[in-house]
Automatic annotation (TrEMBL):
InterPro entries in alphabetical order: Peptide/Ni-bd, SBP_5, SBP_5_dom
Name of the molecule in the record: ABC transporter substrate-binding protein
UniProt xrefs under Gene3D superfamilies: Dipeptide-binding Protein, Domain 3 (3.10.105.10), Periplasmic binding protein-like II (3.40.190.10)
Matches recorded under SUPFAM superfamilies: Periplasmic binding protein-like II
Record's GO cellular component terms: ATP-binding cassette (ABC) transporter complex; periplasmic space
Keywords, alphabetical: Signal
GO MF annotations, alphabetized: peptide transmembrane transporter activity
Positions of the Solute-binding protein family domain: 82-473
Length: 557
């Protein structure tokens, strides 16, 4: 998941804040979190995608309030995230060397309207995700179930996805094109949410989805609001991953970030029961500087997305691996920390690997040892050995035009200049960035600056989307245009390994092999900070992902 909103401008005044977010207790409140009340969620985004086929939502965030999936995650501060059942009785039973996976639904599952949830509904939900009109969601399952994406969905001729079988109302069997050890994790992505068979043909299904989770969407108006109320057919006794404490959840959408800041810092009226969905902004953190109450209500993750600089391996002098390796030494990662968040403590640790902390298979290593501020002399030496004693000129670096990216790009630009690498920054809005950087097969940019949060807690989700050759263009995220047939084969081999420990070793080896080619420069493992009102409690951020677990928090009663 390309992580576009991450904390910027964090001030030194908040350096001593805890970075665990564990069982956060509201400031100035004497009670404990109990079921009941209305939680207010403040968001600067104008809309939320409630259609599971179109969503890339993580298990712990908004979509999971309405839709359940076959599997889920057990998330807690200070421990690795593990896979657990959700709609299914277990986390899947692999056979045929990992090419076949079987799941059985729990007894008595019902939608909010009282109708039973059947295995054919899970299959139908997946089939919808293949239709062009419902694209945009996570797609880890698609090539596994339809190689080459030959299947086009159920709405053109009523065709079924033959690789998914439902022999009875509770059993669903997946026949994959190849062995895939992480398929139980893939079954926790949004497309594995049930949709009643035959429903959801309309493009706006997401405005009135049929709920399987603890809440149902009572009302939704883009740019303004959404209201969730309890699903009367959901049971806390049966669903072990969601506490679903509030009776009602009110989303206020399209809010100005400055207004959100002031409301949460002031902490009055209904805003005492509010949570800021977007990462803490510079305005918030400036206000927090002298506000002990607000400072106690800021929760920061242990780690998070990988922020990185992509080097276009198919463009100009960057085709030369030695030229690309020079960038590893030229970049000042300490300056990037300051530009990102004011201090290393809240920006996140310097990154030297592709796999982020908290994922099995991660080895800590450093192929390009240098001080956090870089080694310009070493960079110049490598450039000279590559035939560029005078450095490089005329490079263009694309980045996002908001959320602090221009400032971060300027820090990268300045550090490259020390090694006689001259780059011009081209900020782009999100739509243009997607079309010009991710959709085009051949990019017009030499460098891109962005970040990546894995969609599932597996090294697979760190490596495959960013470095497999099939992810170049067409909306993929291989922004370095890195194409290595040997790496592609090793990715498929690691994906086919069912034993997690053995797969972890293969992903760790891939991490080093890819970074030896230097298609990207890892910068930092970003930390995320969130602010909430004083009546909101149990605000928890686990080791993965670096987002508050919406399933757990609630209001002090």
């Amino acid at each position: 998941m390309k992580q576009l909103r991450f904390a910027v401008g964090v001030l030194a005044a908040v350096m001593l804040l805890t970075a665990c977010g564990a069982n956060d207790t509201p400031a100035g409140q004497g009670g404990t979190v109990k079921p009941g009340g209305t939680l207010v969620l403040l968001n600067d985004a104008p809309s939320i995608t409630w259609d599971p086929a179109k969503s890339s939502n993580l298990v712990v965030t908004t979509l999971g309030l309405i839709h359940r999936r076959l599997t889920s995650w057990d998330v807690a501060p200070g421990k690795d995230t593990t896979i657990v059942p959700d709609l299914a009785t277990d986390t899947g039973r692999p056979s045929d060397g990992g090419k076949t996976w079987t799941f059985t639904l729990k007894d008595g599952l019902k939608y909010a309207d009282g109708t039973p949830i059947k295995s054919e509904d899970v299959k139908w939900g997946l089939e919808r995700s293949f239709a062009a009109a419902f694209s945009g969601g996570l797609a880890y399952h698609k090539d596994l179930l339809s190689p080459g994406l030959a299947y086009k969905g159920p709405f053109d001729g009523g065709k079924e996805l033959d690789t998914v079988q439902t022999p009875d109302a509770k059993t669903i069997v997946f026949h994959l094109a190849r062995a895939y050890g992480d398929f139980n994790w893939v079954a926790s992505t949004p497309a594995f949410s049930p949709v009643p068979k035959g429903k959801g043909a309309e493009a706006n299904y997401g405005d009135h989805p049929v709920a399987s989770g603890p809440y149902q969407l009572q009302s939704y108006e883009r740019g303004k609001s959404a209201k969730l109320t309890r699903n009367p057919n959901w049971s806390r006794d049966e669903d072990k991953t969601r506490l679903a404490n509030p009776d009602t959840i009110d989303f206020e959408l399209g809010q100005d970030t400055g207004v959100i800041s002031k409301r949460l810092v002031d902490d009055t009226g209904k805003d005492r029961a509010a949570f800021g969905m977007t990462f803490a902004s510079p305005a918030q953190l400036a206000q927090i500087q002298g506000n002990a109450s607000a400072k106690s209500r800021l929760v920061t993750s242990e780690s998070g997305a990988l922020a990185y600089l992509s080097l276009n391996t198919q463009r100009g002098n960057l085709k030369n691996p030695k030229v690309r390796q020079a960038f590893q030494y030229a970049v000042d990662k300490a300056a990037f920390q300051v530009a990102s968040a004011g201090s290393p403590q809240l920006a996140g640790d310097v990154a030297t690997t592709l796999i982020t902390p908290g994922l099995q298979g991660r080895d800590q290593y450093d192929l390009y040892p240098a001080p956090p501020s870089g080694d310009p002399a070493k960079a110049k030496q490598l450039l000279a050995e590559a035939g560029f004693p005078n450095g490089l000129d005329g490079l263009v670096m694309a980045t996002h035009n908001e959320r602090g990216f221009p400032e971060k790009a300027a820090a990268i630009q300045a550090s490259l200049a020390r090694a006689n690498i001259k780059a011009t920054i081209k900020p782009l809005d999100d739509d243009t960035y997607t079309s010009e950087v991710d959709t085009k097969g051949l990019s017009d940019f030499d460098l891109t600056l962005t970040s990546w949060q894995p969609d599932i807690p597996s090294a697979n989700a760190n490596i495959q989307p960013l470095f497999q050759s099939t992810e170049i263009g067409n909306g993929g995220y291989n922004e370095s245009r890195y194409s290595n047939p040997e790496v592609d084969a090793l990715i498929a081999e690691a994906q086919a390994t069912v034993d997690p420990a053995e797969a972890g070793k293969k992903w760790a080896a891939l991490d080093k092999k890819i970074l030896a080619d230097s298609p990207v420069v890892p910068l930092i493992y970003t930390r995320n900070s969130f602010l909430h009102g004083s009546q909101v409690g149990d605000v928890r951020i686990g080791r993965f992902p670096a987002y508050v677990d919406y399933r757990k928090f609630g209001l002090v009663q």
